[in-house]
């Protein structure tokens, strides 16, 4: 099933470090790295503008502010918003940008088939076929690393902290784990680490991208 939408294929290896499952030397196939870079840029370019506009209206604006939320849909109970302004009021861009990049590709990660289909960086649906609950620890560890709950990451020249904003709507049905990720301002390596974490936790198939395509790919 993967072949009908995969324009290119490649192989990635996973090694385990103290940080968790990561792509060996961050070695994305070049085409996949280029695709993810464009998907990220299509969203992240709007974040500094949002903060700048808010700062013309209110005194205090916190880019990518972290909030403890009482929402069962939010995995781990912590979520970052694109900006938090005086009030406090939270602001999230409702941007679902799909730049004109190739539709998707399949990659092999340590023998596990994985599909990456173009997706909005702030609204990425993920599915993985799992046999047990090891995914829970793996997903939690990945999120703790990239959410940066202690706000230790430095900000870049645009005021961004290279952080994931949330994981939500986690569910498992008939052995298929699904959830949605807002990758925020995190670099493309976070996608590789997520794939690696799921594979290391025993997933036999991983698909990242548009939900209507995932249902075909995982059939």
Comma- or semicolon-separated keywords:
about 220 residues; disordered C terminus; single chain; 5 helices; about 25% helix; about 30% strand; seven-stranded mixed beta sheet
Structure notes:
The chain has 219 residues and is α+β, with helices and mostly antiparallel strands. The protein has helices at residues 30-44, 47-55, 134-147, 189-200, 211-217; strands spanning 9-12, 14-17, 20-23, 61-63, 66-68, 78-80, 83-85, 89-91, 104-109, 112-117, 124-129, 166-173, 176-182, 205-208. The strands form four sheets. It has a seven-stranded mixed sheet, with helices on both faces. It has five helices and 14 strands.
Largest sheet: 7 strands, mixed
Strand order of the largest sheet: 1-9-10-14-11-13-12
Over the alpha carbons, how many angstroms does the gyration radius reach?
Answer: 17 Å
> What is the averaged pLDDT score?
82
Between the first and last Cα atoms, what is the distance in angstroms? Answer: 8 Å
Beta-strand residue fraction: 25-35%
Counted beta strands: 14
SSE blueprint:
Blueprint: E1 9-12, E2 14-17, E3 20-23, H1 30-44, H2 47-55, E4 61-63, E5 66-68, E6 78-80, E7 83-85, E8 89-91, E9 104-109, E10 112-117, E11 124-129, H3 134-147, E12 166-173, E13 176-182, H4 189-200, E14 205-208, H5 211-217
Helix pairs in contact: 3-4
Question: How would you summarize this macromolecular structure in one to three sentences?
Answer:
With about 220 residues, this protein is α+β, with helices and mostly antiparallel strands.
């Amino acid at each position: 099933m993967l072949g009908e939408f995969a324009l290119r294929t490649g192989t990635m290896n996973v090694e385990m470090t103290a940080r968790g499952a990561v792509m060996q030397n961050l070695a994305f196939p070049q085409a996949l790295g280029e695709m993810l870079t464009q998907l990220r840029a299509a969203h992240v370019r709007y974040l500094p503008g949002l903060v700048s506009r808010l700062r013309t209206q209110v005194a205090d604006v916190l880019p990518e502010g972290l909030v403890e939320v009482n929402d069962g849909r939010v995995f781990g109970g912590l979520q970052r918003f694109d900006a938090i302004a005086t009030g406090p009021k939270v602001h999230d861009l409702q941007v679902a940008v799909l730049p004109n990049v190739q539709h998707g590709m399949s990659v092999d990660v340590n023998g596990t088939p994985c599909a990456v289909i173009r997706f909005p960086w702030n609204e990425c649906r993920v599915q993985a076929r799992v046999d047990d609950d090891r995914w829970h620890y793996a997903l939690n560890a990945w999120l703790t690393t990239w959410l940066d709950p202690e706000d230790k990451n430095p900000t870049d020249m645009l005021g961004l902290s290279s952080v994931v904003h949330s994981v939500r709507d986690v569910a498992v049905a008939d052995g298929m784990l699904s959830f949605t990720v807002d990758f925020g301002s995190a670099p493309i390596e976070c996608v590789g680490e997520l794939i690696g974490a799921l594979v290391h936790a025993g997933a036999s198939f991983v698909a990242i991208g548009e939900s209507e395509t995932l249902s075909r790919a995982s059939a």
